[in-house]
Fold:
Amino acid sequence: MRHGDKVNNLGRKKAHRGAMLSNMACSLILSKRIRTTLAKAKALRVYVEPLITKSKNDTTHSRRTVFSHLGVNTMGKEAVKELFGTVSSKVATRPGGYTRIIKLNNRSGDNAEMCYMELVDFNDVYVKSSTTTTETTKKRSRRGTGTSTKKSDDVSSPEPSSENIEESTEE
Structure:
């Protein structure tokens, strides 16, 4: 029985699982998006989100804690720099939920469920751009005061006709 066993072992021993999750976390932080199986992505989400939360507080202790999870190799060093630099500045206001899992088709070899795992704030498709402005329209009142939902100022004038152009050039 597996009472209270909440760790997804992924068919690996503890050392192998730790090394795999560390490597996948480094790849996710450096490339912002990785393609993996759904089970590994769910295990990686539990592993990497606390590290991103730690990166919001840029202290020596939090850097050492994250560094111990991401490994001592050169990829781990680059990942820590990227995490405490670019990633932490983007997720500073976000209260949690730093990763997104997008399901894909099954892998043709073994029919494993595949997915993309990405950092939420780095996807250009889903991020709301601040340059687009929404037009505010007057809310229609139920009291019948005569306000309409459309503004007359928003209606653009039609193209000038050829007669108007000829008249303006003659003057």
Summary: The chain has five helices and three strands.
